[in-house]
Amino acid sequence: MELTREAIWSHIVRMDRRKTTVLVMDLQSAEISEELQLKNPEYVDRIRRVVVPNVRPLLDIVRSNRVKVIYTIVESLTQDGPDHSVLHKMVNLHVPKGLMGRKGPDRR
What we know:
The chain has 108 residues and is mainly alpha-helical. The protein has helices spanning 5-13, 34-39, 41-64, 86-90; strands spanning 21-24, 68-71. It has a two-stranded parallel ribbon with strand order 1-2.
């Protein structure tokens, strides 16, 4: 099978929705925050131009076929972040433990 977008979509549509779950990782607001936009505009631009437009049709297809979608929240296990991923270290993105659960516009 040639690995084209159409081949992938047609395979997804044939999946048994009772045995299939789509796991969405690293698509949270911290990935496109104003702070990260200022530090790494190319990274945020690529997420907005490439990643989101490619994930959106996938989610539309799986949802229309009633396939379960699970989202992850990526955060460090510590406040200072020595455990965050290599990619997040490269773009200087650190989501401290508990940040995603905090209330308010600045999440403090």
